[in-house]
Amino acid sequence: MPMEISRRRLFTASLATAVCTSVGTEALAKTAHHARHAVSKHASAHLVHGHASHAAHLAKLHGHAHHTTLAKQVTRRGVAKPYLARDFATGGPEAPVRKIALHNLHTDERLETVYFEDGRYIPEAMHDLKRVLRDFRNGEQHEIESSLIDLLDTVRARTGTRQPFQVISGYRSPTTNAMLHEEHEHSGVAVHSLHMQGEAMDIRLADVALDHLRNAAFSLQRGGVGYYPASDFVHVDVGAVRHWGFAA
Question: What is the pTM of this model?
Answer without folding.
Answer: 0.64
